[in-house]
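User: hey, got a sec? need TIGR00341 family protein folded
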Amino acid sequence: MALRLIQIYTPAEKPDLHKQLDLENIIEMWVTEQQDGSKHVRVLCEVEYSESLMQQVSESGENYDGFRVILLSAEATIPKAEVEESTDDTPAIRPSGYPAVGEGEKVHRISIVEMYEDVKEMIDLSWVYVTLTAMSTLVAATGMLRDNPAIVIGAMVIAPLLGPNVGLSLATTLGDQNLLKQSLKSLLTGFSLAFLLSVGLGLFLPVNAEVPELLSRTEVSFADIALGIAAGVAGVLSFTRGISAAVIGVMVAVALLPPLVATGLYLGTGETELALGAALLMFTYVVCFNLAGIITLLAQGVTPKTWREKREQTRFSPYAIIVWVILLLIMGAIIYFR
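Assistant: Yep! Here you go:
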C-alpha cells in the first residue's frame, strides 16, 4: 500500500478548510493550531485518495493568502498503517470532532499534481539529460554494430526519451501549452543529438548493413503499430502508477531509441533506403506511443480540474488528438503501400 502525507496550511481567514476532507479515506490526521489562528494539518492516506483529498481543500482555499498544500511520499510508518474494513456505514477511521463530507473518489494512480512535477523534472533540458541521451546513443550504436541485443537493452534502461514523450501525452491531455512546448523542446533536442551522433558514428566507423540488430529496424509492418501502441499504454500506465522510470524506459526505448540510432548509422554510411525504413519505423512508434498515451491518461481520469484549465483543454486537446490520428493513418497507408 503506497502512502502519501498531505500537509495543508490553512490561513487564519479560513482555518477550518480541513473539515471538508472525507475522513473515510484518511488513515490518520493531525491538526496543529498556530498562534495567529492559522492551522497546520497533516493527513496520511493511500496514494489512490491523495488527489481527491487535495482537491477537496484546494478549491476553497487556493484564493487565500497563506494557503498551501504540500504532497510528500510516505515511505513507511510505525506502527504499520492499516485501513480497517467496515461492515456498516460507519467509517473505519474517524478522528473525533470532524464530520465526513461524503465519499471521495479513489483513482488507481498517483495524483495529477504528482505526475506534473515528475514530468517537469524528466523534461528538464539540463546537461544530465544531454549526457544521458549521448551515452544511450553510444551504447545502442555499439550494441547494434556488434549485433549484441544485451548491449542494446542497456541503452534502453537509460531511457532519456521517456520524459519528453510522457510530457507530450500529459500536455495534450491537460491542454497545457507550456508543458507541451517544454516537452517538444526536450524531445527535439534529444532526437537531434542522438541522430547527429549516430550519423557521425556511421561516417567514421565501419557499418555492416546486414547485421540483424540493424537490419531488423528497417522493416515496418502493422505489427510495429501494435508494438508502438503497447509501448505507449505500458509506459504511461506504469508512469501513472509510480513505477521506476528505468523499468518503463525499457518498453519505451524498444520503440524509439534503436530505430533512431539505426537511421543515423545507415545515413552516415550512405545506405539511404535502409535509413528511410528505420526513420519510418521511428516515426510510427512516436505517433503510436503518444496517441496510446493520451488515451491511457483519459481512461484513467486525468483531466483538468479548474474551469479555466478545462476551457484550454477544450480549445486545444481535440485538435492535437486529431493530428495524432491523422499521422497514424498516414503511417498506416505508407506501410500498406510500401
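Quick note: The two ends are 50 Å apart (CA to CA). Let me know if you need anything else on TIGR00341 family protein.
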